[in-house]
Amino acid sequence: MGTIGFTSFGFPLKTRNQNLPVVASAYASPSPERIDSEENGCGVLKRTTSIVSRASLVSSSILWFPKEGLAVVKQGLVAGRIPGYLNLMNKTVEGGLTANLRSPAAMEMAGVRSFRTPFRKSNMKIKMSSTTNQVIRCKAAVAWEAGKPLVIEEVEVAPPQKMEVRIKILFTSLCHTDVYFWEAKGQNPLFPRIFGHEAGGVVESVGEGVTDLHPGDHVLPVFTGECKECAHCKSEESNMCDLLRINTDRGVMIHDQKSRFSINGKPIFHFVGTSTFSEYTVVHVGCLAKINPLAPLDKVCILSCGISTGLGATLNVAKPKKGSSVAIFGLGAVGLAAAEGARIAGASRIIGVDLNANRFELAKKFGVTEFVNPKDHTKPVQEVIAEMTNGGVDRSVECTGHIDAMISAFECVHDGWGVAVLVGVPHKDAVFKTSPLNLLNERTLKGTFFGNYKPRSDIPSVVEKYMNKELELEKFITHELPFSEINKAFDLMLKGEGLRCIIRMGE
Ligand SMILES: NC(=O)c1ccc[n+]([C@@H]2O[C@H](COP(=O)([O-])OP(=O)(O)OC[C@H]3O[C@@H](n4cnc5c(N)ncnc54)[C@H](O)[C@@H]3O)[C@@H](O)[C@H]2O)c1
Ligand SMILES: [Zn+2]
Ligand SMILES: [Zn+2]
């Protein structure tokens, strides 16, 4: 209680009201900007306050009173940007700060007492140390060699260049695609490298030409981008941006073909333009979805890849009709998000296919109604499914990355109308082999990256679905670990245990 230590700035702030419960371990976005606003009779910070908790806190919120330079941090949900607080400047706030800053009930639950905000005129300049334009030294999990445990190293992260943004990663999680490229068994090896592409963070600084993101904005990095200018970005049908589509072999930034990460001057490669296993990373602005600052980043970070991918694969690509049958191959997080999409679309039968029998119990929570384990059958799984469904399912979505499952997923759809969607990332030498007759018989084969969502245009509204309780994310999160234990998340995925493991960067 009393004093809040802001680790990024290193300056202590006194709380105004000592009765307010205060969480001491918070940190602030490193480069807030300040403007003087006459509107509320006080100077306000224009943008700042992606204040989040560390240690075991989910997240925190802050009120910033520029006149007095005080801050109140309360464990609760998420901090937002100042526009949310502007409303508070003229008001007595009953209670604390939670997801809905204006909800007295939520505030009461958070246990913060009433207090009055000061709104005197102020010209006080708040001096803040800033990392803008400077190299940041921070911790990152570096993969030095294929399949070898990651090593937490101190890395240098260069400032963002043209059309780039440097972000502070707060939470990241592991997707199977990271594991494939780390193992490099069926993919091209590129080391040393910083993996990670499913994450949530806060903008620290922006490079030349970036106008629609600002320090303090909450963002989800996405492995495939949206420049908003190319033919793909302009097409309603595609998310395969010419400039920023997924590229697993590049390892450097597009602008100058250089890495922004180094250790003692030696460059470390990026991964799919995101490299979120680092406390700070640099990302092209087109690969960042700006989201509601009130959304809890430790939950919505999984929308940055897996869950949006699975959900979109069903809703945007397979498009099952109400009452239809859907087979999902692979019941990891991506597959179960695809199942969730089928449930939302009103599918009447959702058949889950997985080699790991442990997945089946979990899958019930996602609306999977029937299970098939290919190991329990002597005939090919497509034949088993055809028998179960009087000729085949209406839709199938493959989320395994294994070529046999991809072929089965295609061959198990009904002739005449069946549609199969491939999502899994295949071995680089994999070849899809099927009789052309399967296509002539009016089956459709499709594939998708990121569930056909355009990251900047579409993901903010997927986040809103979670905020409006139309989409549940908690059930996908089966584990949590501090950053220092990131290798355990790899072990869990390799053993097929759990779905998503949230890695807390602040510890
Ligand atoms: N296309 C995209 O945009 C995109 C995005 C994210 C992930 N992916 C890919 O989606 C796949 C799933 O990712 P995840 O994070 O959910 O992985 P995961 O490891 O959590 O889940 C994969 C599941 O597939 C099962 N499986 C493996 N081989 C199988 C087979 N032959 N038949 C049936 N089940 C099988 C596994 O037992 C596991 O339960 C991966 O290939 C990943 O690379 C693609
Ligand atoms: Zn992924
Ligand atoms: Zn584009």
UniProtKB/TrEMBL annotation:
<dbReference type="InterPro" id="IPR011032">
    <property type="entry name" value="GroES-like_sf"/>
</dbReference>
<dbReference type="InterPro" id="IPR013149">
    <property type="entry name" value="ADH-like_C"/>
</dbReference>
<keyword id="KW-0479">Metal-binding</keyword>
<dbReference type="InterPro" id="IPR002328">
    <property type="entry name" value="ADH_Zn_CS"/>
</dbReference>
<dbReference type="GO" id="GO:0004022">
    <property type="term" value="F:alcohol dehydrogenase (NAD+) activity"/>
</dbReference>
<dbReference type="InterPro" id="IPR036291">
    <property type="entry name" value="NAD(P)-bd_dom_sf"/>
</dbReference>
<keyword id="KW-0560">Oxidoreductase</keyword>
<dbReference type="InterPro" id="IPR013154">
    <property type="entry name" value="ADH-like_N"/>
</dbReference>
<keyword id="KW-0862">Zinc</keyword>
<protein>
    <recommendedName>
        <fullName>alcohol dehydrogenase</fullName>
        <ecNumber>1.1.1.1</ecNumber>
    </recommendedName>
</protein>
<feature type="domain" description="Alcohol dehydrogenase-like N-terminal">
    <location>
        <begin position="162"/>
        <end position="291"/>
    </location>
</feature>
<comment type="similarity">
    <text>Belongs to the zinc-containing alcohol dehydrogenase family.</text>
</comment>
<dbReference type="GO" id="GO:0005829">
    <property type="term" value="C:cytosol"/>
</dbReference>
<keyword id="KW-0520">NAD</keyword>
<keyword id="KW-0963">Cytoplasm</keyword>
<dbReference type="GO" id="GO:0051903">
    <property type="term" value="F:S-(hydroxymethyl)glutathione dehydrogenase [NAD(P)+] activity"/>
</dbReference>
<feature type="domain" description="Alcohol dehydrogenase-like C-terminal">
    <location>
        <begin position="333"/>
        <end position="464"/>
    </location>
</feature>
<dbReference type="Pfam" id="PF08240">
    <property type="entry name" value="ADH_N"/>
</dbReference>
<dbReference type="GO" id="GO:0046294">
    <property type="term" value="P:formaldehyde catabolic process"/>
</dbReference>
<dbReference type="GO" id="GO:0008270">
    <property type="term" value="F:zinc ion binding"/>
</dbReference>
<dbReference type="Pfam" id="PF00107">
    <property type="entry name" value="ADH_zinc_N"/>
</dbReference>
